Amino acid sequence: MSNLDYEQLWAYREKTLEEFISKYDDPFAGVCAFKRFEADKLLESDGKYLTLGVEEKNSFPHGRPVLKHMPILDKYVFVPYFKDYAEFLLDFVDHNPVDAIVELGSGMATNLIEMFYRGGPRNIPYYAGEYTESGTRIAKSLSKHCPKMDLHSFRFDYNAPNLDIVKEKGTVLFFTIHSIEQVQDVSQVLFETIANHAENVICIHLEPFGWQLEGFDGPPSREQAELCIKNGWNRNLFAALRSAQEAGTIEQTFIAKNVMGGGLGNPTSISIWHN
Question: What are 140-198's pLDDT values in tens digits?
């Protein structure tokens, strides 16, 4: 390819990048969203983007691969395609527009704030549901520093779930990140409450439940089982999801074991379901 061809391609990319920055009214958010947009595309010589395909058996419902092959030291190894939870969730929302985003077990709401400023949807509300008073208080304090973000904080108990604060009833994304792990046993009421909240519910659990699944049984799974049992952490998320599926409460569209990093001895598994 000649330098002239490269110059023309960069001109096309500049135009698209400026469109993203203008859309988000924020250079950093626009750049992040632009990078996600380009991740699975090839820019052709006429300035049009060609979307590249992936193997369906190794991909998430929205088309992205679960793992990628990379050179580490002197070996080729498989690593998570997404470098962190926020990147995965944002890419999912890019492909599945929603009317609201709700994190359950949100702590200080830092995940939601990070998502917004890395190019999350504008003009929709973000809800942070947290069990502790201190976490909810800090989230409310942080929201004052995010004037462009429509962030709501509320107390949420997995054992007595209440979502009255979430007013949107169209398409709502719920997600959890290593928070159900603190609930020893999950009841069907949790899934019923989430599933019945809106017309179209999408729920993503990024939780350490791999040790509850069959399949490979290496050191991470064994260490995770030992850690969860020792700490009295969740022991029935997978069984509860299966029961909710059998009852017709949810339709699980994706499940994968130990595919999203997590702490040493506590890898993250993923479940995605709809109502």
Answer: 999 999 999 999 999 999 999 999 999 999 999 999 999 999 999 999 999 999 999 99
On the CB side of 231, CA atoms within 13 Å amount to 13
- Decide: pTM greater than 0.90: yes
The two three-digit tokens of residue 218, written as one number: 């290496």
For residues 217 and 223, what is the distance between their CA atoms, to the nearest angstrom?
10
- The closest of 210, 209, 199, 103 to 156, measured between CA atoms, is 103
- Which residues are 59's β-sheet partners? 65
CATH number for the domain running over 83-274: 3.40.50.150
What is the number of other CB atoms lying within 10 angstroms of the CB of residue 91? Answer: 22
Q: Where are the domains of the chain?
A: 3-51, 83-274
Phi/psi at 53 (nearest 5 deg)?
Answer: -90, 165
- Contact, 163 vs 149, CB < 8 A? no
